[in-house]
Automatic annotation (TrEMBL):
<dbReference type="InterPro" id="IPR035996">
    <property type="entry name" value="4pyrrol_Methylase_sf"/>
</dbReference>
<dbReference type="InterPro" id="IPR051810">
    <property type="entry name" value="Precorrin_MeTrfase"/>
</dbReference>
<feature type="domain" description="Cobalamin synthesis G N-terminal">
    <location>
        <begin position="36"/>
        <end position="116"/>
    </location>
</feature>
<comment type="pathway">
    <text>Cofactor biosynthesis; adenosylcobalamin biosynthesis.</text>
</comment>
<dbReference type="InterPro" id="IPR021744">
    <property type="entry name" value="CbiG_N"/>
</dbReference>
<protein>
    <recommendedName>
        <fullName>Precorrin methylase</fullName>
    </recommendedName>
</protein>
<keyword id="KW-0808">Transferase</keyword>
<dbReference type="InterPro" id="IPR000878">
    <property type="entry name" value="4pyrrol_Mease"/>
</dbReference>
<feature type="domain" description="CobE/GbiG C-terminal">
    <location>
        <begin position="278"/>
        <end position="398"/>
    </location>
</feature>
<dbReference type="Pfam" id="PF01890">
    <property type="entry name" value="CbiG_C"/>
</dbReference>
<keyword id="KW-0949">S-adenosyl-L-methionine</keyword>
<dbReference type="Pfam" id="PF11760">
    <property type="entry name" value="CbiG_N"/>
</dbReference>
<keyword id="KW-0489">Methyltransferase</keyword>
<dbReference type="InterPro" id="IPR036518">
    <property type="entry name" value="CobE/GbiG_C_sf"/>
</dbReference>
<dbReference type="InterPro" id="IPR014777">
    <property type="entry name" value="4pyrrole_Mease_sub1"/>
</dbReference>
<dbReference type="InterPro" id="IPR038029">
    <property type="entry name" value="GbiG_N_sf"/>
</dbReference>
<dbReference type="InterPro" id="IPR006363">
    <property type="entry name" value="Cbl_synth_CobJ/CibH_dom"/>
</dbReference>
Length: 649
C-alpha cells in the first residue's frame, strides 16, 4: 500500500490525482502531517509526501529503523514539478515509485542513488538475495576499483562494468583486446569479441567477457562469440573448482563479487549473490508437519554446504500438491512448489528407489525424481527426517540445475526514440550481450550499459546472428536480439526461435511495425481487414508471393507491401500493383511512406493508377486501400465496415 500525505490545498489536488490514477493501491492519510506521516510510515510499504523535502526529512528522521525495513519515500513539490526519491531508492522501491509518480503527474523524477545515476545496475537490484558488504562492493564497482568476480557458472547477469572481472584475469585497460574495435567476429578470434565489448562499453577497459576472451585459447571451429563464451565458462569452472577445494581464496585487497549457492566465508569487502540454482525434491507422509519438512530441508542444505537462499523451488509428486507441510515449507522459503505426475517421476532414473512411495503414490521415488525432473545434478541424495522417537514423515533430495540463459527478442520500433517501448529499453539494458544488425545497434547504442558485449553484423548475416544469439543464451548469458519495427515481423524472431531449444528462457518484446507507423501517418488505412506482404523474392519464390497478392486482391483486403523495391528488384512492385488493379479502381488510394518516424521521413498519398514505382525504395512501405478506402481531407481512410459505414451515416 502507498500512503499519501499532503498539507495544503495544492498538495491535496495532486494527492487526489494520484489516488484516482491508482485505485486500490493508495491510502490517504489525513490530519496533522506529523501524525499522518507516522501512521503511514508504520503501515505502508511506500509513501508519497506532497511536502518539501526538508519537512519530510525532519518528519521521518526519528522513525528510521534501517534500510531493510524502512518504506520507500517520495516527495512531490506543491507545483508538481519534481518527484524526489528521498529514501529507500532500491530496497524501498522509491526510485521506481518516483518514476511512476512522474508518469502520472507529469513531473520530473529526481533520483540520486549512485548506481542509477551512473548507469550501473545496483547489486541489490539483480533480484537475487545478496549477502555481505553490499555498500562497500557497490562503491568499488562505481569507483572503477578492481572487483573480482567469482562465479560458479555463467549466469544471465546484467552487464557489469569493465573493472568487474573474473579472478586471475583482472581486466587491464589498454590491452590490445581492449583497444581493438571492429565488427562481429568471423571465425575463431575471441579477441574480436572482446574488442566489441570495449566498443559497447562507455567506460574504459575490458569486461567480464573480454577478460575471459583475453585469457582464452581460441577454440577451433567455434565462432568468436562462442569462443569467448567457452572461455568465460572455463574460467568460472576453474574458479568454482578452486573455491570448492578451499583454495579459491581471493587475495586480500580487491573487492569480491561472488555468485554461488555454496556456503562460504564472506570477507569484509565481499558480496555474495545467491543464484536461484537449487531445487529440493520433497516427499511427505500425509499429515507431515511443516516444521519437520522445513527442518529436513535446512539440515540437508547445511550438511551439503549449500545456501537455503539459492533454493529456487520445491518439487514433489502431484498427489502431494496440497500436502500442508510441504506447501507451508515452500511458503516459508518464498519459492514455488513444482509438481509432477507419478508417471513422469517413475520414468526418471534415481539412485535410491524404494517400495514405499511406489505403493503409496505410484512412483519408486518422489524426492529424488521430483528434484531431478527438471534436469540437473543430484547434490544430496534422498535423506529422511529425524524427528526423534517418531517415524520419519519426510524425505528430501537436492539438485543443482544448470543456469538458464535468457534470450530477449526485442523490437525497436520504426526509428523514433519515443516509439521504442519502455519494456524494449529495459530489456536492452538488462542484457549483457546484444546481437543485431549494425544499423539497428547504432539506433540504440546510447542506451547500452557499460560492459555490454555487442555482436553486430551487416546485412545478410541473419542466420549467423540468430545462431550467435541462441548460442550465447545457451551458454547462460542474458542476450538481447534486436530488430527494427517488431522483431517478429520479417525479422529475427523466427530464425532465432527455430534454432532455440527449451533450455533457455525466451522473452518477446513487441515493437511498432512499419505498417502501423506508416498507417498512423497516412490516417486510418487499416480500419478494416488488412494484410502485410513482403515483395522480397530472395527467400520466397515469386509464384508464392504472386498467389498471395492475388488472394488479397480477390478478397478485397487492404495490403501493406514490405520490402517493396530495391535496386536489383524493380519489377515486382509494378506486377503486384497490376494484380490489385484487376480488382480495384484506378482511383483506389495508395499511401507511400518512407522512413516512417525518422527525421528524413516522407509520406505521399496517391492512387493505384498514379503511383510511380520509381519513387519507392527499400526504406518504404506501400499501403493499398480496398474498394471502400477513400481519401478524406488529405488522409487515407478505410471504413470500419461496409454496413457499419451506411448505418452510421
Ligand atoms: N521488422 C520490421 C520489418 C523488416 S522488413 C518491422 O516490423 O517494421 C524491412 C522492410 O520494412 C523495409 O523494406 C520497409 O519496407 C519496411 N520498413 C521498416 N522500417 C520502416 C520505416 N521506418 N518506414 C517505412 N518502412 C519501413
Amino acid at each position: 500500500m502507498i500512503g499519501l500525505i499532503s498539507a495544503t490545498a495544492a498538495g491535496a489536488v495532486a494527492r487526489d490525482r494520484l489516488a484516482a490514477a491508482w485505485p486500490g493501491r493508495t491510502r490517504v492519510y489525513d490530519g496533522p502531517v506529523r501524525e499522518a506521516v507516522g501512521r503511514a510510515f508504520a503501515e505502508c510499504e511506500q509513501l508519497v509526501c506532497f511536502l518539501a523535502t526538508g519537512a519530510v526529512v525532519r518528519l521521518v528522521a526519528p522513525l528510521l529503523a534501517g534500510k531493510a525495513s524502512d518504506p520507500g519515500v517520495v516527495c512531490v513539490d506543491e507545483a508538481q514539478r519534481h518527484a524526489v526519491s528521498l529514501l529507500g531508492g532500491h530496497g524501498g522501491g522509491a526510485n521506481e515509485l518516483a518514476l511512476a509518480v512522474s508518469g502520472v503527474l507529469g513531473c520530473a523524477p529526481v533520483i540520486t542513488t549512485a548506481t542509477d545515476a551512473t548507469d550501473v545496475p545496483g547489486l541489490d537490484t539483480l533480484g537475487w538475495p545478496v549477502e555481505g558488504a553490499t555498500a562497500a562492493v557497490t562503491r568499488a564497482v562505481l569507483d572503477g576499483d578492481p572487483v573480482t568476480l567469482v562465479a560458479d557458472a555463467v549466469w544471465p547477469l546484467p552487464p557489469l562494468p569493465a573493472n568487474v572481472a573474473p579472478a586471475d584475469t583482472a581486466a587491464v585497460p589498454g590491452t590490445d583486446a581492449a583497444v581493438e574495435g571492429g565488427r562481429a567476429p568471423g571465425a575463431d578470434d575471441a579477441r574480436r569479441t572482446a574488442g566489441d565489448t570495449e566498443r559497447a562499453g562507455a567506460g574504459a577497459g575490458g569486461g567480464l567477457a573480454e577478460a575471459a576472451a583475453a585469457a582464452a585459447v581460441p577454440v577451433g571451429g567455434l565462432p568468436g562469440a562462442m569462443a569467448a563464451t567457452v572461455a568465460a565458462g572455463v574460467l568460472a569452472e576453474a574458479a568454482s573448482a578452486a573455491a570448492g577445494s578451499g583454495e579459491g581464496r581471493v587475495p586480500a585487497g580487491p573487492a569480491v563479487l561472488r555468485v554461488t549457492d555454496r556456503l562460504v566465508g564472506i570477507g569484509d569487502r565481499e558480496v555474495v549473490l545467491r543464484p536461484p540454482s537449487l531445487v529440493v525434491g520433497v516427499g511427505a507422509s500425509r499429515g507431515a508437519r511443516a516444521d519437520e519438512v522445513s527442518g529436513l530441508i535446512e539440515e540437508a542444505l547445511a550438511d551439503a554446504g549449500l545456501s537455503v537462499r539459492s533454493v529456487a523451488a520445491l518439487a514433489t509428486v502431484d498427489a502431494k500438491a496440497d500436502e500442508a507441510g510441504i506447501v507451508e515449507a515452500a511458503a516459508r522459503l518464498g519459492v514455488p512448489l513444482e509438481t509432477y505426475t507419478a508417471g513422469e517421476l517413475a520414468r526418471i532414473d534415481v539412485p535410491n528407489p524404494s517400495g514405499a512411495p511406489l505403493a503409496a503414490v505410484g512412483t519408486p521415488s518422489v524426492a529424488e525424481a521430483a528434484a531431478l525432473a527438471g534436469g540437473g545434478e543430484l547434490l544430496v541424495p534422498k535423506r529422511k527426517s529425524a524427528p526423534g522417537g517418531r517415524a520419519a514423515m519426510a524425505t528430501c533430495a537436492v539438485v543443482r540445475r544448470r543456469p538458464r540463459g535468457r534470450l530477449a527478442v526485442v523490437g525497436l520500433g520504426p526509428g523514433a526514440r519515443d516509439l521504442l517501448t519502455p519494456r524494449a529499453r529495459e530489456e536492452i539494458r538488462r542484457a549483457s550481450v546484444l546481437v543485431g544488425l549494425d544499423q539497428y545497434v547504432d539506433q540504440i547504442r546510447d542506451l547500452l550499459r557499460p560492459g555490454t558485449r555487442v555482436l553486430e553484423s551487416g546485412l545478410g548475416a541473419e542466420e549467423e546472428r540468430a545462431r550467435t544469439a541462441v548460442a550465447e543464451a545457451r551458454a547462460g548469458h542474458a542476450v538481447a536480439l534486436i530488430g527494427s519495427g517488431d522483431a517478429g515481423v520479417y525479422a529475427m524472431a523466427s530464425p532465432a526461435l527455430a534454432e532455440a531449444s527449451d533450455d533457455i528462457d525466451v522473452v518477446g518484446v513487441p515493437g511498432v511495425t512499419a505498417a502501423l507507423a506508416a498507417a498512423a501517418i497516412l490516417g486510418a488505412p487499416l480500419g478494416h481487414d488488412h494484410v502485410s506482404i513482403s515483395l522480397s523474392d530472395l527467400h520466397t519464390p515469386w509464384e508464392v508471393i504472386e498467389r498471395r497478392v492475388r488472394a488479397a486482391a480477390e478478397a478485397d483486403i487492404v495490403v501493406t507491401f514490405y520490402n517493396p523495391r530495391s535496386r536489383g528488384r524493380d519489377w515486382q512492385l509494378p506486377k503486384a500493383l497490376s494484380i490489385l488493379a484487376e480488382h480495384r479502381e484506378p482511383t483506389t488510394p495508395v499511401g507511400v511512406v518512407r522512413n516512417a518516424s525518422r527525421p528524413d521521413g516522407t509520406s505521399r498519398l496517391t492512387t493505384l493508377a498514379a503511383l510511380d514505382p520509381a519513387t519507392v525504395d527499400m526504406m518504404t512501405v506501400v499501403v493499398v486501400g480496398n474498394t471502400a478506402a477513400r481519401e478524406i481531407a488529405g488522409r487515407m481512410v478505410t471504413p470500419r465496415g461496409y454496413r457499419w459505414q451506411t448505418e452510421g451515416s
